[in-house]
Structure formats: structure tokens, C-alpha cells
Amino acid sequence: MAFQFWKKKKDTDPAVQATDAAVESPSATQDHEELVAVDLPKRSARNAIKSIFSRIKFDVENLELIEDTLIQADFGLEAASEIVSKVKDLAKSRAAKTNQELRQILIEVIAQGLEHPAKALNLSSGATPYVLLVVGVNGVGKTTTIGKLSNWLAQGGFRVTIGAADTFRAAAVDQLATWASRAGAKLVKPIQEGQDPAAVAFEATEQAVREGADVLIIDTAGRLQNKSDLMDQLGKISRVIEKQVKIAEVLLVLDATTGQNGLTQAKAFTQIANVTGIVLTKLDGSAKGGIVYSVQRELGIPVKLVGTGEGIEDFSFFDAAEFAAGIVGLEEA
Amino acid sequence: MFGNLSDRLVETFKNLRTKGKLSPADIDTTLREIRRALLEADVALEVVKSFVTAVRDRALSDEVSKALNPAQQVVQIVDDELVQILGGEQRKLVFAKTAPTVIMLAGLQGSGKTTLAGKLAKWLKEQGQTPILVAADLQRPNAVNQLQVVGDRIDVPVFAPEPGNGVGDPVKVAKESIKHAKQKMFSVVIVDTAGRLGVDKELMAEAKAIRQAVNPDEVLFVIDAMIGQDAVNVARAFDEGVGITGVVLSKLDGDARGGAALSVSSVTGKPIIFSSTGEGMDDFEQFYPDRMASRILDMGDVLTLIEQTQKSFDEASAREMAEKLAKDTFTLDDFLDQMQQLRKMGSLKSMLAMMPGAGQMRNQLENFDEREIDRTEAIIRSMTKAERLQPKILNGSRRSRIAKGSGMTVTDVNSLVNRFEQAAKMMKTVAKGGVPQMPGMPGMPGMGGGFIGGRGKQKDKKKGSKSGNPAKRAAEDAGRTLGEKPTGGSGSSFGLGQ
Ligand SMILES: Nc1nc2c(ncn2[C@@H]2O[C@H](COP(=O)(O)OP(=O)(O)OP(=O)(O)O)[C@@H](O)[C@H]2O)c(=O)[nH]1
Ligand SMILES: [Mg+2]
């Protein structure tokens, strides 16, 4: 892996972990804090992504068919026709003709549109606690994602604290508590029901700093992006955190089934909370989440993580090439 | 960005309306726009294709060329076809001949089943039923808790013999719940099930087993209005896997265009019965296919609006109000009275959202603060009788007294008086037939414009920012759209503009 994650060195940590020699610890520039490299367990979403093009045998004459298929995967009209014209251009310039060659080109074009220099989760600066603020509309998988992510980070030796700033939905805190205990993370709960979520976020941040947590993840209530009072509330949550610690990532969770409204969601949440990455959930279903292509195309926000099930391990980093190869498929026709 | 599907089609039809006779080329241009609008609205591609073909066939037929106004006729065809796909007539919930009626909920993860279960139970309870909720989602962490909390809130019992979080057999729970309901004489059993994917064979089989165990009168498939192209696959999978009897469209309070409504109805042929429109337990309505089509065509959901209005708006007082308006004796007392009437109708927001042309102001509506009514009330209550009857006498010193008395600022009082005058003026226009008459509700557009204007101003003031008032502008735009609505045509939804 080209990137390296760092956490604070604790007394309990083994002497010095072997680190990738090519990557220099940021502690070199932050002399007061000693950091240890973290290896997260390897996970892949490869098997979760099924091809949508398996029924088409590509040839130079039927490239138009690609557009329809992309539309059916929620890429959106504009993105779909842009992809098709890129594929046509490349096919022409490379004189590509066979099904395999053309598929390869399509994979390349899609992967290129989803590649991003900052695709890794920002857990590398050394400025702990890394605060991850998780946002999104109702029911997309925010809480589940936090459970999976906490577990994963904990497996890598990160000390994780979770802030339960969804003080609104029925039993939301209990749900998060269940995940926190599964993952072995600390949970900062509201002191009373319906407490101001910003206050919970503030306390969670304070506690994470005080206790020297490596990562703080804040769960928030699902909110539809057209409700300005709720969006203002989110703005407030992010401000109170930033008063204490700079937020490392604002992760917008998008459900792969989401259609064109996903772009509207990304725009609205970015405006309020400066989204730095997308978590694409429910990729284990029949939906492909093509809207993320438009999100990156228009807003430059990369997909960082994917959810592929309801289990605690059904989760991985997003790999553009793997994703593109998955949906295009390379099987013989 | 492009507007809603409604806005988009209005845009398309605007061009169409300006021409007299339609050539096949005109029709094709229009259909291209419709195709595009529908795709942007997330209507599934296969549904779009058949829709466009159906419209083209009819539009090219004699029907159109012989019609008085061909453009209107195309609009009418689009409307007809939309209604047809959405399920034609409105369908009511089916009740069992002998209690209990069993309603099973099914859908993808996160589609809003649990919240809907609560809303449905509350709605049924208000109709004199005695519902019980069944916690058969034993999968998602704390789904059982969530249902219990929801049940507590609406004071409906929850049958939850298993803790959930992976523990317990949902089929068994479902089966037992029916026995329990019979014993305890509950009239409706609502079974909340775990969210599952259409491609998950095992879980689909489980849903089918639950269905067989409870033998439901309705299997409601709950689907999120934000879903994209996958709606067709998911709907098919549930229809084939579990067998659904009806559909509930959730999260319609968002700004998604809801093309899924068309997709799902079209591939399953099952009617959409309810729409779920918010996180509150009352944010729930029956679904009306013809009105949804009208809404798609930006005709506004006027019928629902009228119905809700009539429920709580006292007709006699409404008529009296209309007379007052005509005679120009509308006072601040009437203003207050009318506002209280409005409050009785429930959420002003959701009412306004149904207005014709509301597409453009949908987002402003979301931000409308109902507390504005409280503030207005406080101010008017601090006025003397004479002041309420004759707002003209409100000079500076009276205004500052009122401000003190109501705990508001003089600016608040001033803006209320302005809004009153504006509302009175706009309502007079309405009373004179300036915009379509809506039975039982004089001057809704004026009132809406007034209120929203008030809130907008306040917000601007708070932030000390820009001049101008976007909400008011939107309201005015909406008014203009009203005026531009196509007239003629014989379909129910076209009768309003005449
Ligand atoms: N199949 C599948 N289901 C998922 C995935 N991620 C989450 N879910 C399910 O989606 C549903 C909603 O997940 P939550 O984590 O509660 O979503 P949320 O965004 O926190 O919801 P609210 O807080 O209510 O807005 C649950 O049933 C989860 O089990 C995924 O990757 N695949
Ligand atoms: Mg949650």
C-alpha cells in the first residue's frame, strides 16, 4: 500500500513496529509525539461487485449500448454519455476491436474517473485524535459503517472513541452502543434523551483528547439535505468539534441504491460540512452506486470506503480499478 | 441545476403550448425532453422507454391532430399515461372480514419500515382500530428497541418476545403474534420485518416464510423515494420473492424527484397506497395516483390540499371570511382567526407543498418555521380591540406598546402589519378570482406568501445579510406559474385552471 497510517505510541505497544521503509513517520516533524505505524487487516470488496455488462458482447458498432447500461447503474445521463464518448475516442485511437479490448477501455475510463490522490482515509498526519464525522440522509448506513470502521481500526490497534450525536432517532444510541461494544470502542453518550447533538459531539471530542484516543468517530442523525434547520445543526456539530480538534474526515454515507438525488445530497452536505470522502454502502445488493461517479466528477470528492453487508467485517477501502473491473466484468462472451 | 420533474415538464410544455399545430418532429422533441426528465427523475430506463413509446403512439394518432389544441392534448396524454402507470384509481387499505387484519411490511434496509409501522399504527388507531406492532426485525442491532420506543410514543403495544440483535426466530415471532392478537382482541397486526436485499435468497425465503406464517391481508413494500434505477430490480425481487399487495413510498419530504414511484408501479402493477413524508408520526398520507401525476406535471396536489383543508377548516367561517374579503372588512382579528384555523389543519408546510407550482418553492417551504404563528399570535393578542379592527390606527407609540406587551421588537410588529396588509391584498385578488378558487380556503396563496415572507425577513435580519427575500420571490413565482397553467382538457387534474 502506498499510504501508511499512524497512531500515537502507547506504553502497551510493542517496542517499535516494523514500518514500510519508504514511508517516513510524521513524528519526525512532530518531535514531541512518538508514532507507530498501523497495519489494517486487508479487505477487498472484489467479490461483492457483480458485472452489469455481462449480457453485452462489446464491439465497435454497439458502444451506444454502454450508455443505457451505465444509466441503469445510476451513473446519470451526462456522465454516461461522457464515458461513452471517451470510450469511443480511445477505441478509435488504439484501434481496439475485440470484446476484451473494449471492455478494458471501459474499465480504464471508469477507473480513471474514480481515481483520486486522496482516496486513503486521512489517518496519516499524526495529529491524533483523528476525528471522523459521519453524515448522511436517513437510513443509508451511517451507524453500521461506524461499527464496522471502529472494529477495523481497533483491530489495527487504534484506540477508538465514538460520539453518539444522533440524539433524535428512536433507539439510535442503543444501536450504536451495540456496535461499540462489538468493536471494542469507547462510547460517549448523551446525558439525556434529545440532548443537543452538538453538546454530545463537544463532550466526545473533549474526552477523546483527554484520554488520548487515536480516532474519534462521531455518529449523527440521518437528515434530508433540504431541511435547513437540521443542516444548520450539522454545521454547528462540525464547528464545536473544530474548536478543539481539526476534523480529519467528513464522511458522507451514500446508499448504493440512491439515484440522482445522491448528487444533490453530496452538494448540500459539502456546503454545510465540507465532505472529504464518500462511503458507499449496500454494494452487496443489486445496485451499483454509479452516482458516485457523478459526485466525483462534479465535486471532486472521492469514494473512500465501501460497505458490502450487514456484518462487522463487510467493509473495505474503495479501489477504483477493482470497482471498475467488477462492474464491467472481463468474462468471455 | 434542473428543477423537479414537474418543473422540467412545465418547461417542455411551455414551448409546446406556444405553437399551434404539432408536427411529428415537435412531438419527438418533446418526447426527448420527457425521456430526459424522467431519467433525471430516476424513473427506470425500461419504464421510460415504454412510457415514451406509449405517449408517442397516442400523440401521433388522430386523437391529437383533430383536437382543438394539440399541445394540450399531448399534455393530457402524458398525464393519462402517468396516472395509468401509477396505478389508476386510488386504492384503500384492505381489511380482513374477521379481525385481526394483518399487515406485513417488507423492504430494503433503511427504507423506513419501522418508522412507517409507527405511523400506520397511529393512523389506524385514530380511525378507531386497535393496532399492535410486532417486532420481527431481529437482525439489525436494536431494531426491537426502536420499535418499542416508537410504540411508546404513539401509545400502541408492541409484541416483542425476542430481544433481537441476531437472537430469535422472526417466523416464530410473527406466528405467535397472530395468536396473541386474537387472544387480546387487537383489530390490526402490523409486522415489522428486517430490511433485506432482493438478491439475498435466504432472507427473501425467510420473508416468504413470515408471510406464510401470518397470512397477511396486505404485504406493503416500503421503498425510499430517493432510490434510483435499481427500483425495478428490487420491486421485482420482492414481488416475486414475497408477493406484495401494495407499495409505500417513503421519504417523500426530501427533494428527490421520486421517479421510483413510476418504476415500481409499472413493473409490479401493484398500487402505491401510502406516502411517508417526514420523521414525525403524523407525516403520513394516503397516496393518490392521479394527484401524484398532477404533481409530476406541476399541477400541484390541489385535491389533497382541499381535502385536508376541509377536514379542519370550518366551512361557514370560511365563507364568512370570503365575504369579508370581498367587502374589504378583513381585520387583524380575522387574520389571527385564520391562522389558528390553519394550525388546526396540521403542518402548514406540508399543505403549502401541495400547492400548484410549489415545485419552485419546495425548498423554501422546508425552511418555513411554524413558530412564526406563535409569534404572530403574541403580537396580535397584545393589541386593543380597536387596533385589531382598524390596523390603520397603529402609530409609532401604539406599536412600541404592543412590542413590549408581546415581548417582541417594534420591527417584528412592523413586519407583521406589513404582512397582514400584503395578505389582505393578495387574498382580495384571490377572492376576486385572480387565481384558481379553492373551496373552503380563501387566500391560501396570500397567507402562505405572507408567512414565509415573514420568516425569511427574520432570518435575513439575524444574519444581517443580503436584501431581497428569496422565499417571497419563490411564492410570487409560484403565483405566476398558477396563472400559466394550461387550461382546457377534460382530465380531472386539468379542471382547476379554468
Ligand atoms: N445489505 C447491507 N445493509 C446495510 C449496509 N450498511 C448498512 N446496512 C443496513 O441498513 C440499515 C440502516 O443502517 P443504519 O446504520 O441504521 O443507517 P443510519 O444511516 O445510521 O440510519 P439513521 O441513523 O436512521 O439515519 C440497517 O438495516 C443496516 O443493517 C450494507 O453495506 N449492506
Ligand atoms: Mg444511525
UniProtKB/TrEMBL annotation, chain A:
Family matches, as PROSITE patterns: SRP54 (PS00300)
Intracellular or extracellular location(s): Cell membrane
InterPro entries: AAA+_ATPase (IPR003593), P-loop_NTPase (IPR027417), Signal_recog_particl_SRP54_hlx (IPR013822), SR_rcpt_FtsY (IPR004390), SRP/SRP_N (IPR036225), SRP54_GTPase_dom (IPR000897), SRP54_N_sf (IPR042101)
Keywords, sorted A to Z: Cell membrane, Cytoplasm, GTP-binding, Hydrolase, Membrane, Nucleotide-binding, Receptor
A GO biological-process term: SRP-dependent cotranslational protein targeting to membrane
GO terms, molecular function: GTP binding; GTPase activity; signal recognition particle binding
Every SRP54-type proteins GTP-binding domain range: 302-315
GO cellular component: cytoplasm; plasma membrane
Membrane topology: Peripheral membrane protein
Pfam families associated with the record: SRP54 (PF00448), SRP54_N (PF02881)
Primary location group: membrane
UniProt family annotation: Belongs to the GTP-binding SRP family.
Record HAMAP family: FtsY
Listed name of the protein: Unannotated protein
Protein source organism: freshwater metagenome
TrEMBL record, chain B:
Biased composition (Gly residues): 446-455, 486-498
GO terms for cellular component: signal recognition particle, endoplasmic reticulum targeting
EC number: 3.6.5.4
Domain Signal recognition particle SRP54 helical bundle: 1-86
Keyword Transmembrane carried by entry: no
Family annotation (NCBIfam families): ffh
Protein's name in the database: signal-recognition-particle GTPase
Biological source species: freshwater metagenome
